[in-house]
Structures are given as structure tokens and as C-alpha cells.
Amino acid sequence: MNDGDSDALEFDKDVIEFEEYFGGKIYLIENYNELEAISTTEESESDPTLWATILEKADAFDDCSYICDGKYAILYNATTDSGGSTYLVPRKIADLCGNIKESVEKTRIAWG
């Protein structure tokens, strides 16, 4: 339901499940430490058997941009045919992590 918020996304929840619509879970990052949950496709320097997090490295994502008039950063990588996890990061948190800004630019260049 859009209660006058022009930035809201609308979909018919009676027809399709939220996760099915987006192809994965959507996470709202609520503090800086939760950025640790966002994996890149870059190898971690501390453990080469793991993916680096956004706190460690910037990366080109399937989507990494600012949305809702710049109020949020969205970071998304498709990890299956259905889609993947989506992370919404409030701008005040995103701006604390230089790798997000760099990832927005890398993604823009990668997808032209």
C-alpha cells in the first residue's frame, strides 16, 4: 500500500509472494556492522576460501546504485536463476563505507 510515499514499491501480495517477486530475500541494513553480511564476488584477503564483504572490498554488482532520490543504496547480486539477495542500505550508513560508493561506480562502468 502506498500511503502517499512516492518512493514506495507496490506489488499485489495476494498474487505473488514478496520473495518470489524479487527472486530472493530483501534485507534492510540498520547499522554499519550489518554491512558485514553483504558479500562481493571478490576473494577475501584474510581467507581466500571466502568472498570478501563490502567492508573489505568494492565490487561490480548486478545492481548497485542509489535509489529513492538517493536515500538508499541498493546492492544486489543474482546468485541463482531466480535472483538473489537484495540489500537496502540507508544513505547515512552507506556513506560511512567508501566501498559502497566505489561499487556504485564499478557497477555503472560494468553495465554501461
List how many beta strands DSSP finds: 6
| Helix content range | 10-25%
Shape: globular
Taking pLDDT < 50 over at least 5 consecutive residues as the criterion, the unreliable ranges are none
Give the helices and strands as they follow along the chain.
HEEEEEEHH
Provide mean pLDDT, rounded.
88
Question: What share of residues are in beta strands?
Answer: 15-25%
Rg estimate, integer Å: 15 Å
Structural class: alpha+beta
Question: What's the arrangement of strands in the largest beta sheet?
Answer: 1-6-5-4
Instruction: Give the domain tally.
Output: 1
End-to-end gap: 33 Å
In DSSP terms (H or I, runs of 4 or more residues), the helix count works out at: 3
Largest sheet: 4 strands, mixed
Describe this structure in words.
The chain has three helices and six strands. The chain has helices spanning 18-22, 91-94, 98-111, and strands at residues 26-28, 39-43, 51-53, 63-67, 72-76, 86-90. It has one domain. It is of the alpha+beta class and 112 residues long. The model has no long low-confidence stretch (mean pLDDT 88). The strands form two sheets. The chain has a four-stranded mixed sheet. A hairpin with a 7-residue loop joins strand 2 and strand 3.
